């Protein structure tokens, strides 16, 4: 369809978290650098940002960057009980037969962590959408993960990711013990207007196309409509490309963006 018309080899604005399409704004670079440090030091880190700002994509890029030095365990649905969380982690650490009892779970996880330490592999637990965690008990279980440690360092790194309201949740006095364990935290902001232009061109090039497909006024409208949130940019830009293809328009302008925006933001 529109890919050949615009000289593209693949979809430039897919919403899947593909690290090849991760545009590294200054905020994304800093977020990734902080997470790399947290993993290297086996620390507990907090990353927040508006929905669609690229938190999950950054975590996938982190996994690619760290390579075989780390083993990642992703918890993508944190609406769990504390024992269920430990089962997910045990499975991610490739514990052979995951036991049902909590004490045996903890024992198996401990054995797996020490084995990976001997193999010089760092386990990394990534908890996504942490604002959905249902109760204090699960937050306490996450805090207790940092008790797996040697005399001089933790045996695993934990990365908590969520939307901005997660920070409000964690301000409660009951979470003071958890806050004290968080050594690195970062809030990922939306893109600026200049970064929106660079983002559009970057993803067009990553998909095999030529930059400059969107006119300056089109970039301005996309920025205004999306508020600089990458996932919204992707939806608006895709619909604009589809509209342009349907009308045989090779250069996307603001008028075309506005025409496509109703469907994009519905």
TrEMBL record:
GO molecular function per UniProt: ATP hydrolysis activity
Origin superkingdom: Bacteria
Name under which the protein is recorded: AAA family ATPase
InterPro entries in UniProt: AAA+_ATPase, AAA_22, ExeA_AAA_ATPase_DNA-bind, P-loop_NTPase
Pfam families xrefs: AAA_22
Segments forming domain AAA+ ATPase: 41-165
């Amino acid at each position: 369809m529109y890919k050949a018309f615009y000289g593209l080899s693949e979809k430039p604005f897919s919403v899947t978290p593909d690290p090849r399409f991760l545009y590294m704004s200054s905020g994304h670079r800093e977020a990734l650098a902080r997470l790399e440090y947290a993993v290297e030091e086996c620390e507990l880190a907090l990353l927040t940002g508006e929905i669609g700002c690229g938190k999950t994509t950054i975590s996938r890029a982190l996994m690619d960057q760290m390579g075989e030095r780390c083993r990642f365990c992703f918890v993508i649905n944190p609406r769990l009980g504390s024992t269920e969380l430990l089962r997910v982690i045990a499975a991610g650490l490739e514990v052979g037969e995951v036991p049902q009892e909590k004490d045996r779970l903890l024992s198996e996880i401990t054995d797996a962590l020490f084995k990976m330490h001997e193999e010089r592999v760092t386990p990394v637990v990534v908890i996504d959408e942490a604002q959905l965690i249902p109760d204090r008990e699960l937050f306490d279980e996450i805090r207790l993960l940092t008790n797996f440690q040697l005399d001089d360092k933790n045996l695993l790194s934990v990365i908590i990711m969520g939307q901005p309201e997660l920070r409000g949740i964690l301000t409660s006095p009951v979470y003071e013990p958890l806050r004290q364990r968080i050594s690195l935290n970062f809030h990922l902001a939306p893109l600026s207007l200049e970064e929106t232009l660079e983002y559009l061109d970057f993803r067009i090039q990553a998909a095999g196309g030529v930059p400059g497909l969107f006119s300056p006024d089109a970039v301005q409208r996309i920025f205004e409509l999306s508020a600089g949130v990458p996932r919204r940019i992707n939806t608006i830009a895709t619909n604009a490309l589809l509209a342009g293809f349907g009308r045989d328009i090779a250069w996307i302008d603001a008028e075309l963006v506005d025409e496509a925006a109703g469907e994009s933001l519905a």
